[in-house]
Structures are given as structure tokens and as C-alpha cells.
Amino acid sequence: MLRNFNNEVEEARVNLCKAMQATLPSKQFSATIMLVLVQLSLIKERIRKRQNLQQRRELIREFDKCRNALQKGIRLLGKGSLRTGCGPRRLNVHGSFRRGSLQT
To answer: What are phi and psi for residue 97, nearest 5 degrees?
Structure first.
């Protein structure tokens, strides 16, 4: 089965955008998770350009580790969207207002 790394990166980007719209992460967390997304894109390009199968396998393992870290960060952002509070109105991942937020 052939993997489409472009689709995997695009799917991760879309999921990250949805999660970041649902919550307001700290500056450090936002910067870190964006750098992981950039790193994922760079690894994808390195995989595409490699001809040596051993090097490709190593890069694919690195890609998987990076993608898993990004997915874990997205899950943590998703958990943050369920917290109650009276901060600014934000939508959660499912498109509804989070509980306890102002709905004016």
C-alpha cells in the first residue's frame, strides 16, 4: 500500500487549525506545535527526494514519530476545548460553543 504523505500532512494541518480555533493555547505551545508541523512538511519533502530505500525507511520512521507527536498535541488541544470558563467565545472541534463560555 502506497502512502500519500501530502495528504497526511494536509490532514494534520486541517486538524491542527480546527483544534487551535477551538482553544487558545499558550504562545510556547502554539509555537512548538507549528514547528512540528513545519518539520513534518520538511521530512515529507526529504522522503520524496530520496532514492536510497534505507534512507527512505529511516525518514518514514522519523515522519511517523513527528506525526504521532503532532496528533498528541492536537488531542491535548481538544481536551482543552472542553474546559469550562468565562473567556472569549470559542467554538469547539464539533462546531458548537464550549460549555460555560459567553454566548452573546
So the answer is: -70, 140
- The pair phi, psi for residue 91, each rounded to 5°, is -90, 145
Contact 44, 10 (CB under 8 A): no
Give the pTM: 0.71
Residue 73 resides in a domain? yes
How far, in Å, CA of 34 to CA of 36, rounded? 5
DSSP 8-state class, residue 97: B
| pLDDT (mean) for 29-47 | 93
In the prediction, which pLDDT does 101 show? Answer: 46
Using an 8 Å Cβ cutoff, are 29 and 2 in contact?
no
Residue 76 lies in a domain: yes
State which residues form the domain around 46: 5-80
pLDDT, tens digit (0-9, with 9 covering 90-100), for 52-96: 999 999 999 999 999 999 999 999 888 875 444 444 445 455 544
Count of domains observed in the chain: 1
12: in domain:
yes
